[in-house]
């Protein structure tokens, strides 16, 4: 449980500073240190157990379905990292209090920092590879926020994005690699993975998994060629740099290599990739660090170089390489954190980080200078300091390389060259900043010592450098033992860290580096000139330019694909459908089925010809909208006649009334459109459209032909048998509509009501442009003869619709048709007498009428609940009415009434709303709005 | 017989009707609307509980036994979709009630009609009835899309409705083809008849299936049929866009349902199409995310990315992959909805710039909205500890061969990386690269924040407490893979005995 606390406490620490910020910076800081302090204490409390060889484990099943469990471990490696993370984290919290100005929100800073700390602790303590990745990505996310802390600065934003893209992307590769590892060993549990190194290395997927995992590690640890994000992350406040680039973020990569060392290391592939990437990074970054005039730039490249060194050690896989790597991780964390803090102090006090301006600070801030010089000496590898010890071990390991045969000598030589540059840039850090004449144009002058508490963290770290450097065996040795045992995964070779091994080759290399570095520094002007002559990219700009180029290319693609042409989109749809249809129907052997064809008769032929002529004509003259609409109505009429021909009177009645209503509505809509539509399509488009629509038409014909010529058995027989006995009606079509499939009908009348709502919502606020209307309209708006006739017709029409409604259950008719007939009769009143006349007499809210219809139908369906039957179960009975005689009452008729009302409401609403658009009241309102 | 299964259809219907008929006062409308959504969620949870036991419940409308009448079928998948939708609806209605339902009085009723359509489509066991509910959906979504008016909406709505009407026509053609071949409309029955079909006539049924794929593909916004989506989602009002996050998922649902049930005897029917189309859809989505100049459009393309990802999952065609897809489906629906609401809130605080991805005034509630945006983006790109990460890892683990891995993994990972790049660009531009003064009066209240925060919280909970969810998804996929239980439930079904009440 305490393991879980170690990781999660900083999360609590992320919340507290935000809450306490209002009480002042000091209180906020005091609260902020609490969580890491306790975490560190908890880690220390585990020390004896770990030094005794135990590995405390915490395990709780979590997302077991994907193999992600909440498992933590605290072995030697985790211990070492955990102490670095919490320890240096504490110092950074302390330091930031003095570094950040009052304008910066310190609560926000501490919150993100501790979020990041939690993620780092999670990485180093995870005992489940997926859990490790969860924390890994969390460090990417939180470091994004840390680097972008000064969000008003362009370089901070760009640096943050770049870091996120590179490390986040690497994290994704790592995820893939981890999934492969899990696939190989059947578990994401690290204990299992680490003990199955043999199996993993022999697996055929090992090379892929290795490359993916290395991608993750190298991006995080800024190894060549992914190193470029790190220098740009320097846009962060210095405490962030001191934390991220010494003990944490970038160390996560090398941590991963160390963590998976037992599982992955030992193959040739591992050796070659890891060693040489590390070597290239080491040399290249050491060289570049020397050339940077920016203080933090120098430190950034030096960090990359040292990470390269550690990576290379892990790649070498020689006897003590892992030990050396672990040792250098500790040393680098200590001296680099103090150097960043010192650089921050200098920046803070002088207002610049340019080493061409900052000179001779020794006179102004001797204490800071002393601290910085010791730390820089440790970075250079000067004896008596911690850097010297691990560097010697490194040099020693490079000499034990046998795999390269004759070329084995290249590695120590290159290592020494990197050492020379390391000394040179360390010396430059000391000499340029603290000596080298007088300061030049400092923004803040004269600089003076910072407050003592700002120096304190630096001093603590520098003392550590000395302690470790002088008495390694009394200080770090047990930690290194525990950690390297965890890395190597086996018993360690006996080794000894000591200052003096006698005169040997590593010592010679060390001194060569020291002497060479000083010499190189003395020749710096020539070097700078050489470097300036070379070609240098600003990676930030390159990255930005690439992103921009990607964005522009994407915009081009998107604009080309989606050009806003509905015709094109429909063409895609029709084309897609055609492909599907052709692929599906192609294997059909016989297009024509076995059913005998009916004989052709004259009426059918004429109807077919008319139908074709009507359809083709509609398309041909579609530029003349009114005429094509009239031809379209011919098509509708023929279709309803065809229904009559094939004994479907219900359908015919429905079709013809629907036809009338839609044509009237479309006529109304035509009023708002120009009479002629312009000819816009080019020849190619016309050919495309004809081809597509022709093919689609043929396709539907083929399908219809194939289906209709085959004998088929359907459920229709059941409907015919049960229509009277179960549904109480002899008109099967109507019984299907209101009973067998009454639920469909309920849905469809809902659709109708919805259409009404939609039309209302759309037209109510619609503002049409005032178009001058060239058409000559009839002078008499409401011809009296028409009006009189229409009014006489109204009661008759209503009677007819009532008749159609009542008989619907047994003979052709029903609510839908009756509703349409009523609508037509009422539409006629609108046409003959005008909107105002009707509105005075018929004060209906059509939307509510339509809704009411659906409500009636639905409630009828619910009636069945009372009798314990499912929704829409019908019942019927026969009663004897005086005068009328035997009459059947069915609940389905109430349902049908709902259909009737909905149809009337929806149709009239559409009509009234379209009519309203031109109504004087509306135009007047529009005018007043325009004036207003 | 229990009528509970019917409630998810009838409750929104009656709510919608009531709101249409009595639409006087907006506060009453909001109260009714929200209460109904809450009740719907409660009922759906109850149904989920019942379905989770593994029973498949049937409800015969009009007491006509299948295959003759229409049946509603409640299985795990249906229950899952119901709950997902009602959670979404609750938050959307909540957000809309924060004065985002103006102008007009039709937003709330329309939302409920849309819910009716969705729930009906999820529950129905009848393919023609599915068509009817598609129509209910189409009409209500079209009207919703136009909510608020304006030229952009009218244009996008026109494209939307025309394309979808073409889709409806094709749906009818396909259904009548299938009816002509099998003589039935009940999906379970249709599946059995297709399995027994004379091999010579098999191509006809397959044609019907492929034509349906075009219909569902249009709904799901599969390339090259997605063109209606970006403009429609970008133009829709905030709450509407959020609600529409579920619309594409309906297309995916229909594919899963129809091809696992009706075309169970043709298991590989779609596979040759799904793979390339999924990848192209994913690519088109990513390109759109990169290209977007406005945040709403960017989120619309994120919806497209999620569609592509889901199709990949479906294309893998295994139980495990289907389970992973279902998890991803729920996750992506909620997170995209959260993003739409969030962007709507951000938009209101940026003055005339609205949601263009350009340097503008700082947001008056920049911190809290920034945190929300950060979490939402992490989830949508699939970074831990959000549900997006769980969904992606789960999908990646579902590959069953190296070849699949070679396609699926890079697709998921590279799309994730590119989305990170694009979204970090938008986020830093809007939240960090600010100029000028805040627009103080644009401050949003607590309630809309709760809507976004709640949805995001659900995304987090969905990952932290994801194990039972993942198990449920596995069970769901198992139930789908083996349709015998469904068929058995259908064939053993007995209507209520008719008493002598005539």
Structural account:
Chain A has 932 residues and is mainly α. Chain A has 40 helices and four strands. In chain A, a hairpin with a 4-residue loop joins strand 1 (57-63) and strand 2 (68-73). Chain B has 502 residues and is mainly alpha-helical. Chain B has 20 helices and two strands. Chain B has a two-stranded antiparallel sheet. The two termini of chain B are 20 Å apart. The mean pLDDT of chain B is 92. Chains A and B meet through strand 1, helix 6, helix 7, helix 26 and helix 27 of A and helix 1, helix 4, helix 5, helix 6 and helix 8 of B.
Topology:
The complex is a heterodimer of chains A (932) and B (502).
Chain A lengths: L1 H19 L4 H21 L1 H5 L5 E7 L4 E6 L2 H24 L6 H20 L3 H19 L6 H32 L4 H5 L2 H6 L3 H15 L8 H4 L5 H7 L4 H11 L1 H4 L3 H24 L3 H22 L4 H30 L15 H15 L5 H14 L10 H25 L17 H19 L1 H4 L1 H12 L16 H18 L1 H10 L5 H23 L4 H20 L16 H19 L4 H21 L3 H22 L12 H26 L7 H12 L4 H9 L1 H23 L19 H24 L7 H19 L1 H7 L4 H21 L9 E6 L3 E6 H26 L3 H12 L1
Antiparallel strand pairs in A: 1-2, 3-4
Chain B lengths: L6 H15 L4 H27 L4 E4 L10 E4 L1 H22 L9 H17 L3 H19 L5 H32 L4 H9 L6 H19 L7 H8 L2 H7 L2 H15 L9 H21 L3 H22 L2 H30 L17 H16 L5 H11 L4 H31 L13 H19 L1 H16 L2 H8 L11
Helix pairs in contact in B: 1-2, 1-4, 2-3, 3-4, 3-10, 3-14, 3-18, 4-5, 5-6, 6-8, 6-9, 8-11, 9-13, 10-14, 11-13, 12-13, 12-17, 13-14, 13-17, 14-15, 14-16, 14-18, 14-19, 15-17, 15-18, 16-18
Concise account of the structure shown:
Helix content of chain A is 72%, strand content 3%. Chain A is built from 40 helices and four strands. Chain B has two domains: 1-269, no CATH class; 282-482, no CATH class.
């Amino acid at each position: 449980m305490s393991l879980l606390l170690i990781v999660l406490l900083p999360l609590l620490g992320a919340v507290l500073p935000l809450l306490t910020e209002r009480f002042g910076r000091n209180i906020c800081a005091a609260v902020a240190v609490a969580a890491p302090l306790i975490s560190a204490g908890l880690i220390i409390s585990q020390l004896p157990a770990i030094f005794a060889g135990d590995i405390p484990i915490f395990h709780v099943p979590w997302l077991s379905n994907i193999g992600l469990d909440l498992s933590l471990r605290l072995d030697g490696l985790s211990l070492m990292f955990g102490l670095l993370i919490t320890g240096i984290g504490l110092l950074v919290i302390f330091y930031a209090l003095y570094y950040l100005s009052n304008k910066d929100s310190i609560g926000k800073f501490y919150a993100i920092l501790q979020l990041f700390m939690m993620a780092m602790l999670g990485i180093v303590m995870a005992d489940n590879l997926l859990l490790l990745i969860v924390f890994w990505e969390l460090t990417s996310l939180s470091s994004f926020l840390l680097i972008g802390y000064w969000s008003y600065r362009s370089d901070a934003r760009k640096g943050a994005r770049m870091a996120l893209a590179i490390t986040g992307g690497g994290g994704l590769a790592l995820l893939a690699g981890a999934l492969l590892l899990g696939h190989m060993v059947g578990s994401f549990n690290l204990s299992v993975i680490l003990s199955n190194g043999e199996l993993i290395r022999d697996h055929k997927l090992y090379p892929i998994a290795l490359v993916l995992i290395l991608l993750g590690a190298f991006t995080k640890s800024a190894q060549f060629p992914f190193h470029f994000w790190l220098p740009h992350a320097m846009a962060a406040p210095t405490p962030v740099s001191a934390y991220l680039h010494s003990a944490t973020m970038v160390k996560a990569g090398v941590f991963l290599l160390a963590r998976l060392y037992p599982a992955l290391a030992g193959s040739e592939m591992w050796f070659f990739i890891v060693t040489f990437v590390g070597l290239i990074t080491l040399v290249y970054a050491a060289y570049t660090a020397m050339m940077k005039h920016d203080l933090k730039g120098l430190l950034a490249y030096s960090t990359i170089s040292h990470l390269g060194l550690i990576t290379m050690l892990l790649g070498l896989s020689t006897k003590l390489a892992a030990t050396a790597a672990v040792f250098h991780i500790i040393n680098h964390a200590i001296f680099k954190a103090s150097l960043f803090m010192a650089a921050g102090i200098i920046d803070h006090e002088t207002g610049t980080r340019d080493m061409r301006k900052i000179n001779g600070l020794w006179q102004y801030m001797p204490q800071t200078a002393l601290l910085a010089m010791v730390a820089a000496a440790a970075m250079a590898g000067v004896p008596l300091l911690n850097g010297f010890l691990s560097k010697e071990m490194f040099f020693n390991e490079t000499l034990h390389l046998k795999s390269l045969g004759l070329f084995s000598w290249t590695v120590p030589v290159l290592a020494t060259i990197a050492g020379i540059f390391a000394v040179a840039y360390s010396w430059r850090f000391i000499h340029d900043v603290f000596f080298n004449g007088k300061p030049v144009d400092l923004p803040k002058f004269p600089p003076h010592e910072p407050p003592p508490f700002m120096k304190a963290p630096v001093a603590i770290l520098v003392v550590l450098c000395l302690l470790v450097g002088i008495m390694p065996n009394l200080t770090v040795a047990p930690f290194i033992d525990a950690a390297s045992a965890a890395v190597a995964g086996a018993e360690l070779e006996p080794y000894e860290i000591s200052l003096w091994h006698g005169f040997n080759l590593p010592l010679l290399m060390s001194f060569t580096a020291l002497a060479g570095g000083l010499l190189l520094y003395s020749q710096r002007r020539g070097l700078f000139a050489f470097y300036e002559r070379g070609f240098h990219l600003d990676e930030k700009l390159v990255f930005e330019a690439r992103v921009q180029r990607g964005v522009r290319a994407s915009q081009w693609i998107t604009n080309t694909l989606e050009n806003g042409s509905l015709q094109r989109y429909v063409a895609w749809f029709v084309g897609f459908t055609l492909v599907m249809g052709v692929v599906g129907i192609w294997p059909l052997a016989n297009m024509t089925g076995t059913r005998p064809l009916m004989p052709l008769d004259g009426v059918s032929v004429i109807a077919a010809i008319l139908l074709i002529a009507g359809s083709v004509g509609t398309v041909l003259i579609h530029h003349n909208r009114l005429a094509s609409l009239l031809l379209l109505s011919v098509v509708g009429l023929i279709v309803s006649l065809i229904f009559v021909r094939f004994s479907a009177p219900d359908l015919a009645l429905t079709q013809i009334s629907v036809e009338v209503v839609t044509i009237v509505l479309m006529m109304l809509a035509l009023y708002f459109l120009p009479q002629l539509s312009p000819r816009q399509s080019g020849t190619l488009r016309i050919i495309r459209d004809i081809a597509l629509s022709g093919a689609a038409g043929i396709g539907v014909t083929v399908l219809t032909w194939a289906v209709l010529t085959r004998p088929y058995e359907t459920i229709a027989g059941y409907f015919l048998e049960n229509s009277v006995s179960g549904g109480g009606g002899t008109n099967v079509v109507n019984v299907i509509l209101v009973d067998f499939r009454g639920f469909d009908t309920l849905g469809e009348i809902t659709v109708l009501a919805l259409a009404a709502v939609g039309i209302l919502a759309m037209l109510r606020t619609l503002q049409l442009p005032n178009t001058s209307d060239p058409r000559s309209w009839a002078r008499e708006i409401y011809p009296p003869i028409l009006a009189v006739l229409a009014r006489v017709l109204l009661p008759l029409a209503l009677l007819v619709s009532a008749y159609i409604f009542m008989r619907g259950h047994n003979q052709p008719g029903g609510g839908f048709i009756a509703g349409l007939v009523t609508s037509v009769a009422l539409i006629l009143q609108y046409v003959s007498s005008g909107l105002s006349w009707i509105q005075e007499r018929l004060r209906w809210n059509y939307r509510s009428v339509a809704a009411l219809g659906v409500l009636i139908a639905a409630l009828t369906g619910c009636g069945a609940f009372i009798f314990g039957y499912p929704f829409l179960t019908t019942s019927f009975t026969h009663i004897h009415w005086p005068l009328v005689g035997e009459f059947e009452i069915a609940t389905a008729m109430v349902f049908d009434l709902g259909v009737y009302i909905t149809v009337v409401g929806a149709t009239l609403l559409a009509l009234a709303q379209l009519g309203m658009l031109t109504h004087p009241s509306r135009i007047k309102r529009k005018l007043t709005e325009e004036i207003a | 017989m229990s009528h509970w299964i019917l409630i998810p259809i009838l409750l929104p219907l009656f709510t919608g009707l009531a709101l249409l008929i009595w639409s006087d006062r907006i506060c009453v409308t909001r109260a009714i609307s929200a209460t109904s959504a809450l009740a719907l969620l409660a009922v759906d949870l109850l149904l989920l509980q019942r379905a989770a036991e593994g029973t498949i419940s049937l409800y015969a409308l009009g007491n006509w036994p299948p295959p003759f009448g229409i049946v509603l079928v409640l299985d795990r998948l249906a229950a899952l979709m119901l709950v997902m939708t009602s959670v979404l609806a609750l938050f959307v209605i909540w957000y809309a009630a924060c004065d985002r339902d103006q102008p007009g009085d039709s937003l709330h009723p329309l939302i409920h009609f849309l819910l009716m359509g969705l729930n009906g489509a999820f529950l129905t066991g009848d393919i023609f009835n599915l068509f009817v509910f598609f129509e209910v959906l189409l009409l209500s979504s079209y009207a919703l899309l136009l909510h608020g008016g304006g030229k952009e909406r009218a244009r996008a709505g026109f494209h939307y409705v025309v394309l979808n009407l073409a889709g409806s026509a094709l749906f009818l053609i396909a259904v009548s083809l299938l009816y002509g071949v099998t003589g039935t409309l009940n999906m379970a029955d249709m599946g059995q008849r297709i399995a027994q079909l004379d091999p010579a006539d098999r191509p006809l049924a397959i044609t019907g299936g492929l034509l349906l794929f075009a219909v569902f593909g249009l709904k799901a916004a599969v390339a090259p049929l997605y063109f209606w989506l970006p403009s429609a989602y970008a133009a829709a009002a905030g709450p509407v866009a959020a609600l529409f996050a579920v619309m594409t998922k309906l297309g995916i649902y229909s594919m899963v349902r129809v091809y696992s049930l009706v075309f169970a005897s043709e298991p590989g029917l779609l596979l040759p199409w799904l793979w390339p189309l999924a990848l192209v859809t994913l690519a088109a989505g990513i390109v759109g995310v990169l290209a977007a100049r406005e945040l709403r459009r960017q989120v619309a393309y994120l919806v497209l990315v999620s569609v592509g990802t889901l199709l990949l999952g479906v294309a893998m065609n295994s139980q495990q992959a289907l389970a992973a897809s279902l998890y991803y489906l729920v996750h992506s629906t909620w997170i995209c909805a959260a993003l739409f609401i969030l962007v709507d809130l951000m938009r209101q605080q940026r003055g005339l710039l609205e949601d263009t991805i350009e340097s503008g005034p700082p947001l008056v509630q920049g911190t809290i909205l920034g945190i929300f945006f950060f979490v939402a983006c992490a989830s949508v790109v699939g970074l831990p500890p959000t549900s997006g990460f769980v969904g992606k890892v789960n999908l990646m683990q579902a590959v069953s061969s190296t070849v699949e891995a070679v396609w699926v993994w890079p697709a998921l990972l590279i799309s994730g990386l590119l989305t990170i790049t694009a979204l970090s660009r938008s986020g830093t531009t809007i939240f960090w690269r600010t100029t000028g003064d805040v627009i103080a009066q644009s401050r949003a209240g607590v309630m809309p924040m709760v809507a976004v925060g709640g949805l995001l919280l659900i995304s987090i909970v969905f990952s932290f407490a994801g194990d039972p969810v993942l198990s449920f998804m596995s069970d769901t996929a198992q139930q789908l893979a083996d349709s015998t239980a469904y068929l058995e439930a259908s064939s053993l079904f007995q209507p209520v005995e008719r008493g002598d009440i005539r």
